[in-house]
Amino acid sequence: MTTERPSLEAAVVIVGAGPAGLACGLRLAQLLDEHREREPRLPAKDSIFILEKGRETGAHLLSGAVLDPSALDRLLPGWRERAPIEAAVADDAAFFLTSRRALRFPITPPPLRNHGNYVVSLNRLGKWLGEQVEAAGLTIFTATAGARLLFGERHAVIGVRTDDKGVDRRGERKANFEPGYDLKTPLVVLAEGPRGSLTKQLLGRLGLAGPNPQLYALGVKEIWSVPAGRMPPGRVWHTMGWPVPRSMYGGGWIYGLAGHRVSLGLVTGLEYHDPGADPHVLFQRFKTHPFVRRILAGGEMIRYGAKTVPMGGYYSQPPAAGAGWMLIGDAAGLVNSQRLKGIHLAIHSGMLAAEAIFDSWRTGDPAAVARTYPERVAAGAIRRELWTVRNFHQGFERGLFAGLLNGAAQMLTGGRGWRDPMLARAGHLRMQKLQAAPRHDWSLQPDEQLTFSKITDVYHSGTRHEEDQPPHLIIHDTDICNTRCIVEYGNPCQHFCPAQVYEMLPAEDGTKRIHVNASNCVHCKTCDIQDPYEIITWVPPEGGGGPNYEGM
Amino acid sequence: MRILVCVKQVPAKDAPIKVAGDGAWIREDVAYETNEPDAYALEEALRQREAHGGEVVALTVGPARAAQVLREALAKGADRAIHVAGDDAHRLDSYAAAEAIARAIAGEKFDLIFTGLQSEDYGYGQTGVVLAELLGIAHATIIMQVQPAAGGVRVKRELENGYFQYLNLPLPAVLTIQSGINKLRYATLMGIKQAKSKPLATVALADLGVSPSLNRQSVAKLYVPVKTKKTELLEGPAKEVAAQLAARLKNDLRVI
Amino acid sequence: MASEHATVLVVAEHRGGKLSAATAEAIAAAQQLAAPWQAAVHAVLLEGAAESGLAAQLARYQLAGVLAARHPALAEYTPEAYTQALQEIVSRRQPRAVLFAHSYQTRDFAPRLATRMARALFGDLTALRVEDGRLTVSRPMFQGRLAADLVVPGEAPAFLSVQIGAFRADRAALAAAPAPIAAEMVAPAAPAAAPEAPFQEAKQAVDLTQAAIIVSAGRGIKEAKNLDLIRALADALGGEVAASRPICDSGWLPMDRQVGSSGQTVAPKLYLAVGISGAIQHLVGMKSSRAIVAINKDREAPIFEIADYGVVGDLFEVVPALIEAVKAAKAGG
Fold it and tell me: Which of A407, B23, B94, C50 could form a disulfide with B127 if both were Cys (CB 3.0 to 4.6 A apart)?
């Protein structure tokens, strides 16, 4: 059935109201304000559309996080007095954990030194940035997902279609059905974060990628309320070692927030060999280490979340722009995986994108951004920073120590390391079959006080979806799950999903079948990334659904 | 018909709610949303306007963050909004909130005032009824249908145990609207766009002379209800266990 | 302060010539409240001019008296007439407290009455406690996930309505000899328009929040066809069928049968959880139930932590046996 769709014209559509998308919007508003009088023919602010699939700005934003202030200093001088900050970094340290001990590094490795940076909640910072964007006269269309890109001749992007609302689980229209809008625009800025669905659609259709495929890690996080003084605000600790097996990449963090709260989590590289690997289990185990347990004793878990991070770095960046499109922030792979920092790069890239877009409006040549934006990125601080760590993450392909050695080598050689460029295989291709893979112990009996089941954790993510809608996790051939994967890999989706979306349940004939609890989904994108057969496609559910990462 | 819809911002239904340290209130770092019963009240008001013309005005009593529910109401189609704002507005009881509403709309004439059946935080379910008393106008609760009729409206009211009743009310009147009576509409892109240019007036609670000191009932302590009884585990052959359980249901729980 | 002149009024509710079941609960609550105050409890009956047997029914309870207020304007319930009549009675009798059952009807008019008399209605109460000369009451908040204590100010009268089922009707003390029935003068104005006759109607969606007994199915039932067992148990108990989310997600039951954080929140007299593990998403939807019985073959299932009675066993054996046992218990008298 063809749908009558309303359509609107836009000067630019920004998909995603995270730090990159919001910085882009805010910078555009600033430039328009500066120049409006002299150049009255610039586009009106209401022709700039910012789409956000979350129920409100910030709802889907999650990070540790320690913020490098350089980009915000440029975008909003004086932000430190006005923006929500947990604490300035007061002291930092790195630890190597064995199963019983925590060995402090006598000198904090330089990439993990954070003096001058700020512990923030990305959710709250995002909310605040959103308020600045709205105050500047732009509108953030929350609960509105970018469902599909619209293409014109020769694969040029000519617009974005937003999600249909009020469709039931069989695909039929409900009484309150509202069709998505076709937003026609000469320029779509994709700021969807890691493994964005439109970004994936675009790069797949155009056959674009960097020299390396993108590499990802999954961060699993909780916020705890703890007795006073347990973890002073601004204390930044990083850990490596236990409980992450030596063959895997991973590490933990513990940050002191304001108000007697602690942000802690574990990042696990999505490039492991063992198909049973469960990043949620690793994080729960992490909390049982005496070093961590001591901090949390007597406290209460108040929030949970999980999200992937692009770790591939410089050589995994896809092309940054093309006919009618640009990529900024995590969608463009702009994360310094050595420093574990990407928010400032997201903001920088959003600003550069805005500046390139604005110039194209003044010269009347919107197509120019496909050239000028990448030029700005290549000429500036983003490239300088990512260039020096261009071979960092790839070194961990052979495990923790090889990675650390490589890390040291590339630090001493200005990023060159053993080989430049250091190539990498996609993470999901490194998963080995059950028979061949090294197996670790992934069992966990949560006590529901210190450690939690995925289900209890999902409850604390505030995740909610309209129940009666089509499933947004599309498995293209469930026969593969039920007959091949079950034998070859043991259905790793049950393990790598931090929200218990996937389960193999006994069917009437005694066999096991894949069952999808789409409502639990926290939008981390792990399944889209890590499924070894590449048959899972994550598409945005009805806008407004997903986690509510208050304080994360 | 000019319809005022009172909407409240409450913690999101699925939000993991925790008592704040001092036991006086909950931790406020939760996600907030429109009280679901109020969303049904707004939907009913919008449908009335679509069918019979008029104006729909959304009003909330709440702290600064509560402006969000008004923006949503405007995006869904309300014509204008009134925010009665105060940092401690969420601590008002039904009486003080009704006083605030009555004072905020003193200069206006509404034919109908809709509220949701009750709020998902306090759940007193009284604000609409108290407001009707303060305004000296008619009211009816748990309303499922509203139709204009000679001299006022004819409404369908839900009673207990599956009973319903029609009654006629003169205007102006306060109606508390039952949930689930219609399908809630979505705010469209155009709706969100247009919302920005609709009037949203802010009135300070203090300027109306209202504060929690006006409360006639206040929460002294908030806590997680503790189960006082211990769990009795019954084990054994199915028939025996079933008999024991049936005896408990009959004699101790008195449900059969 | 104790006073031999202190009075507590309890307002009776009736429909179709019968007292509501909750009226006895309110009487029990009133008797409990009156004790530390050494107050006399009077039941208040509002009805039309024609005498029914309702006053005599009320007089069976241990009360200082039954105040029968009869007036044509009270023949059918309307909020205006009830409010006016009760305002007269309360002003005249000056009770320390006025008790109601927290029914739809009470919610419809009692807040209006309380406001008119410069008070608030303390509603949906699960407990009443007189401590250190103060009356403290408890009620649910956040849909039963939390509870709140409120202190009722000392100025008489206090208006209190008790949650249906929070007080036991069988604890309302009966008297050896009937309480005296007195005619109570009231003169409420005739309401602007009389309400039409109540009628019954099959509701579009089931309202689980109105069910006194709920039998709820979880993953443990394994297949859709096993819901027949659940229905049979619900029928035997006279209850409604509900389920945890996975059951409704799979389409085995419609979504208006779902109990939990993304479904309905219920607090029935009895919640029987069959094959439900007790994930927190489900618990928040039912843990305020007055009584919880769980049947699960996993001894460690979290549902047992909040159950009053737990059966560790195979539901496919326990439920059929339970159906028979319930039928026998009902027949046995």
Answer: B94
Neighboring chains of B (3 or more beta-carbon pairs < 8 A): A, C
SS (H, E, C) A391-406: CCHHHHHHCHHHHHHH
Which chain C residue has the Cα nearest residue A463? C262
- Total structural domains within chain B: 1
- Note down the domain range covering B7: 2-214
For the entire predicted model, the pTM comes to 0.94
B255: tokens are: 């449900």
Q: Does B18 touch chain A (CB under 8 A)?
A: yes
Q: A139 contacts in B (CB within 8 Å)?
A: 192-193, 196
pLDDT the model gives residue C204: 65
Handedness of CA A71, A73, A79, A85 (dihedral sign): positive
Q: Which CATH class is domain A8-64+126-210+317-388?
A: alpha beta
- Write out the CATH class of domain C208-332: alpha beta
Is there a contact between C276 and C218 (Cβ–Cβ < 8 Å)? yes
Predicted local confidence at residue C5, as pLDDT: 75
Quote the Cα angle for A513-A517-A520, to 5°: 150
Residues of A within 8 A of C280 (CB-CB) are: 455-456, 459
State the average pLDDT for chain C: 92
Which amino acid type is present at position B34? T
**Under an 8 A CB cutoff, do C262 and A467 touch?**
yes
> pLDDT at residue C2 above 50?
no
B185 and A176: CB-CB below 8 Å?
yes
Which residues in chain A are closer than 8 Å to C258, comparing Cβ atoms? 467
Sequence spans of domains, chain A: 8-64+126-210+317-388, 84-121+214-310, 393-421, 454-538
CATH class of A84-121+214-310: alpha beta
pLDDT at residue number A267: 97
Fold of C7-183: Rossmann fold (3.40.50)
Write the pLDDT tens digit of every residue in A395-429: 888 888 888 888 888 888 888 888 888 889 999 99
ipTM of the complex: 0.94
% of chain A exceeding 90 in pLDDT: 88
Computed over every residue of chain A, the mean pLDDT equals: 95
Residues from chain B contacting residue A302 (CB–CB below 8 Å): 16, 18, 27, 29
The CA–CA distances, whole Å, from A461 to A220, A456, A498, B30 equal 11, 9, 11, 10
The DSSP bridge pattern shows strands B80-85 and B112-116 to be unpaired
